[in-house]
Amino acid sequence: MDASDTQAFDACLRDALALTREWVPRWLDKLHAAIKDREFSASQLSEKQVLMQARTTLESHRDLVATRFLAAFAESMENALPHTGTGSRRSPTVSFDELELMGDDQVQETVELARVQQVVKMAVDEELVTLTALLNGAQGLAVVNPDANPLRSEVVVAALMKALKGLHVEAAVRSRWLQVGAMSLGEALREMYANLSRQMERAGVKPAGYVVTQTATSRTTPGTAAPDAAHPDSVPAHEMLGNDALLTLDHLHQLLVGNLDQGDDGPSDGGASGSGNAMVRTLASEVVTLMLKRIAADERLLAPVRSLLQDMKPALLQLARTEPRFFADKQNPARRLLDAIIARGLAFTSEQDPGFAAFSNQTRGVVRALLKPGADLAARFPAQLEEFQRSQAAAVGPAQVQARGLAVQTLVRVEQRNLLAERVATEMRGRNDFDKSPGVVRRFLTGPWSQVVAQARLESTDAAPGESAAMRYTDILPDLLWSSQLALASLNRPRLVKVIPGVLRTLREGLDSIDYPREQAEAFFQALMGLHEAAYKTQRNEPPADEQPSIQPELDDEPWMQRNEVRDTCFMEDSLPDAPPTTTQPAFLDTQPLQRDWADLKAEMAVQRTSELPVGTWVDILQDGQAMRWQLTWASPHGTLFLFTGGNGRSLSMTKRGLERLLEQRRLRVVADHGVVDEALDEVARQAWLNSAMAEK
After folding, report:
1. What is d(CA 210, CA 608) in angstroms, rounded to the nearest whole number?
2. Is the pTM of this model over 0.90?
3. What mean pLDDT is predicted for residues 545-571?
4. 335, 631, 288: which is closest to 296 by C-alpha?
5. What domains lie within the chain, and their CATH numbers?
């Protein structure tokens, strides 16, 4: 990204805040005047009273609304940019899971928000397109990503809603403010967007380009009618019962909570499922159709996989007639089968990948079994789920299962030892003689030697207290720290000669106990013997004066692993593509103090880290110039180590820092960090939300 473009982007955000401070008071004045006009022209007393309450409440809260709106907008603008490199899904306005937990009032508020956003979006559409292209261009994007515009209208409206919800005013008053002020809010934003676009054009920013993408064509299954071309999101015509079946947010909410009235055209279960209600069946079919349409357009799945999933549509639509909420129950066999097929399908990036042919044949068999005529469809899903899971488990060889189990056990032990080593290092830093020792010794003690002591403590549960190796490895600390201090050791050469052999022998024994690399150990021993030699040759007639301890930063190394542990866990060490392979062993060379505080640098880097990935996440990792598909199948209890499994059953482990490094280097791309069905259902909820905004009040 060009430096001038970066400056223009930052300047645009600053100008947006400045302009917002100007137009918000004007918008509140227009809102007050509009409410007052409606109040005078209202013919019904009840409407006049509601408007009067809205006007007087606005008069008393005007300054507070402005202050909170500006604060919420500034905060929302900072959080509105998408995370770089994660590929995570866009946050839905209302998620499918949340909708089921909402009350009727919350649903109504969400619908009100949709209507306001729709009015505002229609008012600013042309200016927003121009500004988004310019802001994307300033960020170095070649193709427009609407989410990369932190000033988009939904961000502004969401900030307004957040500010209003923080006020102690009635919901009816807030609703009236939004209804009356939506149009003038859109006009104010349109003017701001136009001003910002002109400023960016004067700064020489080149806009990003828009691309036209073709939507996935829907497949028609034999025996079913094609969807209405004018309404691609609708169910086939024979499933529809008229305009009442429009999937609004309120209808979807009522479907999920089971509050729709029962009909007399089928079996009734007292309202438990709503299966006897024609509208319930129609809405359920609408949800299934929309869900499958979203999945059909999801390019993370290979085209043959999406095709097979679309072939399941008749069976899923038939199931929706008897179990209209099966898709919302993650434990329902049909939902679990759909999730299992999609999760396995994400493992493949090519039809030539090993195992894809067997997976495709297995899935095709599932579809054939579900499409057979018969009234026992609901009973077939559990059997097909069990058979599919058994087949997929059998595809993984016993050796791979054993290797994965060994990898998990090893990683658990590694994390336990490293956490204990951190406590051991803290104990060492608390010693009175620690800070005065040379940096090379301090780093050795808080690095590899803390690992030695931790390993010994983990293995010494059955040893007598005085005989444990951990005790011997700790007992040498006074002699080691004393002998490494030139000023002290040079005063007592007889003691120095006496303690050196025992110290060196114990050090070698401890390092061998953790299979510490010999070349790394020798580097430390050379440095330590140099200190001992200097102390032996130094002549002092007087006790040394008190000296200030040398202050050097302690190296913050990632979890250390032994060579056999690296092998057993298939540990990924090639974290730097253009540099020699890194090791997990600490270095012992003296370093210059950092010009800036290490904690500050770590805090800055942590802002850009997005390694908090849930187990089950699918990622592509670039290795040797080729992207490989892996799934995060295990994370250590403290989140320091991760184990990935490939579609071929292979394992790959890495540390948290290694994962963050791959993200920073853009060698790791998150493919799916949520279930594909979950995301599709969230899009269904979003479509219902938009339908509610378009519906007449």
Report:
1. 27
2. no
3. 66
4. 288
5. 3-208 (no CATH), 243-260+276-395 (no CATH), 400-560 (no CATH), 565-674 (2.30.30.140)
